[in-house]
Design goal:
Helix content: 55-70%
Low-confidence stretches: 1-12, 203-209, 383-387
Distance between the termini: 209 Å
Radius of gyration: 56 Å
Mean pLDDT: 78
Strand content: 5-15%
Number of strands: 13
Length: about 675
């Protein structure tokens, strides 16, 4: 059923009629989802067959779908994209630069909190197999009030969309969930108990009696609808007709309302959004390869060394079977063997030569079919290196270069998809996270003006959110080194060619650097190199705004000035030499004065010592004289005392004598 038929079959013409009562509301939405499923029914059947074939492991099957998918998916995406957030205009803006850095770090950190690579790989693989890849962005709230933003892959068969020819005109999208009873109660405490669990998570075999599956396998089909017209997020259960389980106003507040970017399409046209399984385009060739592979297997199976022989020679055959290499045995009846023309005439072998030629022909046919298939899918020149050893390296490089062009559109689509996911994450970071959370997460301190720029500004207008060039495709080391080497060589050639024109004033410096920047982008050197080029241009532009430098001086005047400078320098050198000589002479005089002063001091100290010695000598002599005088005085004193005593004795003797003389006279 085409989109026009789907739209014509609807009986609802206005949003008011669509709403109606809760019962009618649920009924009308289920009808819309059912019509959307019918619109893509043929594609879903093709996608289901393709995925079953991709997962098939039949013994006699050449699963070219698996091989091609495993080769092309890494060529489209094999590395986590690097966010690149910048202010829309490259002015000198510290606030914008700080906010850009905070957003860039926040996106990287949020992507590291879960397996973002798995989401991208699932979307790319769904694109290659089913024909459409879808990823949604979800706000996850923790029990402690924390918030984080995650991307979640959407199974290709669980996505529906409203009728439209272009993605921007899609009125609604829907996701199918399979909820347990606990999940239903968490979603809708009011109606969660009334929803019937009428689906299972997987095929469950319970025996021949076809009993109901255990409760643990039962689920309820719930559709999560994002209605852009009303700006609401609606949850409806297929088995509950009384109304929606939950209605949220304004979803997440994203710029385009939907929580998914435009899906990845393998085959995309401007008049239809129904996906196309890419495998259906080259399925006839894949069937041919499988048929040839099966036929080869059957013929090879019957190609055995088998034959018949005459029963008369059974004894000879038995002897031959038991012989070792080079060993001989005697024939029982050689005459009869020779009569019948020898044993070789009596043995008939299976004609495997014809079968071998047929198998060889089938192998050639299969290789031709594979080459046609590789040419159709682009795998031959792009990835498998359809070259010969005799070809030159240049020829192989040209093949690889032009072959890779066939993937560039798909690679650009994958990069666009990753960029859109990062933009939605940036919108949610700015919308739901507090400045303190962003600072704690990124380490970037935001000022009030920067917070206003982040929260109050329109990120679509203020900032450009991209991913680094080719960051989703990891280049090998040899190619990266060759890329840098080519840039350095080209850079040198460019400077040699353009440098003289810049020096002569024929080309402004900023223009030359802009040309160099455009030249450098072909080498895909990354964001830092491009930023450096932009800073170089800005530096030259600012330098050009400065007053012009004075004209170069006259060579003759320069020579005279140099001569005068040389004379002045020589004069200064002579003055320095004279000052140095005078200083040396003054130092010599000072040294001589110091020596004279030292000599005088020494003589003065010597004289002082001599005077001190004389004084000591005089003192000693004086002490000796005093001692002699004291001895003499003592002697004199002793002599005086002796004289006195003698005199006294003499006087006493005299007195005694006189007394004795007087006694006789008295007797008379």
């Amino acid at each position: 059923m085409s989109e026009a038929e789907v739209q014509g079959s609807a009986t609802i013409e206005t949003q008011r009629e669509f709403a109606g009562s809760p019962t009618e509301f649920t009924k009308n939405w289920m009808s819309a989802i059912d019509m959307a499923g019918k619109d893509e029914k043929s594609w879903r059947e093709d996608a289901d067959k393709t995925i079953r074939r991709y997962r098939s492991s039949k013994p006699n099957q050449f699963n070219i779908l698996f091989a091609n998918t495993q080769t092309t998916v890494p060529a489209l995406y094999n590395s986590e994209p690097v966010p690149d957030v910048r202010r829309r205009f490259g002015d000198n803006d510290p606030d914008g630069k700080n906010v850009s850095m905070a957003l860039e770090r926040a996106i990287s950190i949020q992507a590291e909190l879960y397996d973002f690579n798995a989401c991208m790989e699932a979307a790319v693989k769904d694109r290659q197999l089913a024909g459409r890849g879808v990823t949604r962005v979800r706000i996850v709230r923790g029990p402690n009030g924390s918030k984080r933003i995650e991307c979640e892959p959407v199974v290709w068969d669980d996505f529906r969309r409203g009728p439209a020819k272009m993605w921007r005109d899609v009125p609604w999208i829907a996701f199918r969930h399979r909820y347990t009873r606990d999940e239903l109660l968490e979603l809708s405490p009011k109606y969660g108990r009334e929803v019937t669990l009428d689906a299972t998570l997987m095929e469950v075999k319970t025996g021949d009696n076809s009993e109901d599956p255990p409760e643990m396998f039962k689920r309820a089909i719930v559709w999560e609808i994002w209605d852009k017209v009303t700006g609401k997020q609606i949850f409806i259960a297929e088995s509950f007709k009384d109304g929606p389980l939950l209605v949220n106003e304004d979803g997440y507040g994203l710029r385009d309302f939907f929580c998914v970017p435009e899906p990845l399409y393998a085959v995309k046209t401007s008049d239809n959004l129904v996906p196309v399984c890419e495998f259906t385009i080259w399925k006839p060739l894949a069937d041919e390869v499988d048929t040839l592979t099966e036929r080869i297997a059957k013929i090879v199976k019957v190609m055995k060394w088998r034959g018949l022989y005459d029963g008369v020679f059974s004894g000879l055959v038995e002897k031959l079977e038991g012989l070792e290499d080079g060993q001989l045995a005697a024939a029982d009846d050689p005459a009869r063997s020779m009569q019948q023309g020898g044993i070789e005439k009596a043995v008939w072998m299976m004609p495997v030569a014809d079968a071998a030629k047929l198998v060889e022909t089938l192998y050639v046919a299969r290789e031709q079919a594979k080459n046609q298939l590789y040419e159709l899918t682009g795998v031959a020149d792009i990835l498998r290196g359809s070259t010969q050893a005799s070809e030159t390296a240049t020829a192989q490089q040209i093949k690889a270069q032009w072959g890779s062009l066939r993937l560039q559109e798909a690679q650009a689509s994958v990069q666009r998809y990753a960029r859109d996911l990062y933009r939605m994450m940036a919108d949610l970071i700015a919308e739901i996270m507090e400045p303190e959370e962003i600072t704690a997460m990124t380490g970037v301190q935001l000022t009030p003006p920067q917070i206003e720029l982040l929260k109050g500004g329109d990120l679509r207008r203020e900032f450009v959110i991209e991913i680094e060039t080719d960051s989703t495709i990891r280049a090998d080391l040899a190619r990266a080194q060759e890329n840098v080497s080519g840039f350095v060589t080209g850079f040198g050639t460019f400077i040699q060619s353009v440098g003289p024109a810049v020096e002569a004033g024929m080309m402004p410096g900023p223009i030359a650097v802009k040309l160099l920047s455009s030249f450098a982008r072909n080498f895909k050197l990354g964001r830092e190199a491009e930023t450096t080029m932009d800073e170089w241009v800005k530096f030259l532009e600012d330098q050009a705004k400065q007053p012009p430098a004075p004209p170069p001086p006259d060579p003759k005047a320069e020579a005279e000035a140099a001569k005068a400078a040389a004379v002045q320098q020589k004069t200064q050198q002579d003055m320095v030499r004279d000052e140095r000589k005078h200083g040396m002479e003054m130092q010599k005089i000072d040294r001589e004065d110091q020596r004279d002063q030292q000599k005088a001091a020494l003589e003065e100290r010597k004289l002082a010592r001599e005077i001190e010695a004389d004084q000591i000598k005089a003192g000693l002599e004086q002490q000796q004289m005093v001692g002699k005088y004291q001895i003499k005085a003592a002697e004199q004193e002793m002599m005086g005392e002796h004289t006195v005593r003698n005199h006294a004795i003499s006087m006493e003797a005299l007195k005694a004598k006189q007394a004795a003389a007087k006694k006789p006279e008295a007797g008379k």
